[in-house]
Amino acid sequence: MIDMARCWLLQLGSNFPSDKIVRSALAILAGAGILTTLTKIKKFGSYDGKRRSYYNVLVSFVAVGERNEIVAMLKRIERELGRSGSPNDTVTIDLDILASLQNAEWIPDRYALQKREFERPPVVAMLRDARIRIKRNGLPRGSHMNGNTDRLTAYLPRWLRWALMFVLGSLVAGFSVAFFLGINQPGFKDWLPASVSVVQIALTALAYVLLLFFTESGQNPAALDRRTEQVLTSLLPKTLARITDVQGQQVLVTVGPRSGVVGRDYTLRSTNTEMRFWIGLNVHRVIVILYALRPENVSGKDFKEKLETSFSGTVTGARRVGYDEALFDAGNVNGIDVGSIWLTWDLGTNEDFLTHSPTQLFFAQDTALMMQSFLRSAQRSQIQLTTNIAPMPL
Questions:
Q1: Is 388 exposed, middle or buried (0-12, 13-18, 19+ CB in 10 A)?
Q2: Which end of the chain is more exposed for a tag (fewer CB within 10 A), N or C?
């Protein structure tokens, strides 16, 4: 009997200081079967306050063998790369099976289900990025198994909702009036059951339409845009207003008009310092941009190095939460010499960010902590994080 190759969905993870071990594991797997990288290697921060930051990547792996043989091979690779198996061991590398491909569907692995892998933000984010859908049959209620979560509430345009309400309301009113006017008329009793049935059906449909009318579906782009504005213009400014400078003085927050398609310009002021920055929110992706004024007697290269050194602590903290590696650069924008700092962060949550209040609060408070660190570090290093140019995507 000839063994058939099977396709497995694997998650690779390591809390090693760099992604070096993850890349080594990818190289070994590529030599043992057909490997396809489905996502970029990305660092995810702690999401429950207990686990450390991990470098993760999602891959598909085609190889001959049963599940126990694949698991044995993965454990062997882990040992080769330095994992000892001790419970207190730093996780040099972790290779886990998430699912297997059967009849063109990804079937979740039973051990991955037991470990609740599909409820962890990094896995949810990677499945979404790779557009992988995991079959739901037999999964616990409340699990978020797909990169694109289905919504139970259908989205109907407002005009269609009004039209349905009018039609159904007219049916209820018409048959109700006919019922009360004709109940004493000869021969009406033959129509009584039909009239009552129509009224009941119309009332049930009307109740559902009313639910749709007063419910903003997650599929409604206009509703998501309104929620984005609410986060950028209400929640975030209120949280940023708690920031204090090195001297302990609380800042005043000014919010500029919408710019750069998905963001807004913010200015923090105290009597001791000032800082200007841009924050963009693209559904679940965060972009932060700052400009620093470069002194005339400092070269672009030296200024870039100063920015990297001065804000190394801030950037390291951001990486631990889940931000991508910060990009530092120096150049001339509209005739002004500046240094720029770019940070991006895919929130990667179980719930949709714009419909999940706890995640929104976490984002706002963590952003405020990061911006306070930028503000105070700039004060200590005498860096001017404000220019006449509004920072935004170029």
A1: exposed
A2: N
